[in-house]
Write a structure and sequence with these properties.
Blueprint: E1 12-16, H1 45-57, E2 62-66, H2 76-86, E3 91-96, H3 101-111, E4 115-119, H4 125-132, H5 137-149, E5 153-158, H6 169-178, E6 182-186, H7 203-211, E7 216-221, E8 227-232, E9 237-241, E10 254-257, E11 262-264, E12 273-274, H8 276-280, H9 284-296, H10 316-319
Helix pairs in contact: 1-2, 1-9, 2-3, 3-5
The structure holds S-adenosylmethionine.
S-adenosylmethionine binds at residues 21, 27-28, 66-67, 69, 95-97, 119, 157, 159, 186, 188-189, 191, 194, 316-317, 320-321.
Length: 321
Amino acid sequence: MLIDGHGRRVNYLRISVTERCNFRCQYCMPEKPFSWVPRENLLSFEELFSFVRVAIDEGVDKIRITGGEPLLREDLDRFVAMIHGHKPDIDLALTTNGYLLADTAERLKEAGLKRINVSIDSLKPHVAYRIAQKDVLGKVLEGVEKALEVGLKVKVNMVPLKGINDDEIVDVMEYAKARGMTIRYIEYMENVHAKEGLKGLTGREILDKVKARYTIKKVGREGSSPSFNYLTDDGYKFGIIDPHKHDFCESCNRIRLTAEGHLIPCLYFDEAMSIRDAVKAGDIEKASEILREVLRNKPEKNRWSDENAEESARAFYETGG
Ligand code: SAM
């Protein structure tokens, strides 16, 4: 079992398989073109998997593949199949912007993927364009339909932004609800890579928008999920991910691995250790030692709730959010 320096059980590994993305979401990435990590610096699926196997054998039972945009990594289903082959009952999920999903959902499902989260910040083509800085909505919605058709469980992620998509909070919920999908609203997490001046809605403000349509009841946090859940009067469960709240980190059960091999204990902080040399050398014992050291040093709390904190320098497109 993996226990961190604050006594929390860590059983959840998020793997960013590429930092590259085909969107330029304002809240995540710099607007101007910038240089990507050269492809040769990325760990291969075999190298990533050699670490994943260690993590699973030591107690990880939940894995999420993310990015950048993970579907930009060719033959992602091969990586999914490796993980599934090692532990078929693992909770294996993917977070994607959905743009390439229509062509990949079937293969991913066959390879052993169980669940996906799709980011849908707007149902208006021009607003989706404004956020992602590309004409994306049609392909994303097509991807969602395909994923549902092949039997993947789908959740929707939305980041509500003031003056941009905050009038669509209930509309996106209705879209998700009509298809049997859960929606989770994510509070915008300030970071230095996002567009200047961007303002997110707080969990309270998001809730007020939902309350204008529904009577709601608190359900609370369930297990180690970062989401605080609510139930509408017609029985629909939705969640708010509120990293600015003081109790958010208490049940944190996750660590993150980047495509270059950085093992990251907290989404807020810059700290990381590299497993790159260890996996390249096939030194599994060393990789396991590094995993334990990262856990020992996992911070107790992020600093999004701290008014005097500096903006996080961590890039969500590197860590996978
Ligand atoms: N490209 C994929 C996608 O769009 O879902 C996966 C990577 S993305 C970094 C993962 C999640 O992080 C998305 O749901 C996205 O909305 C969220 N995210 C990115 N930057 C964020 C920020 N500054 N605040 C809150 N959520 C953010």
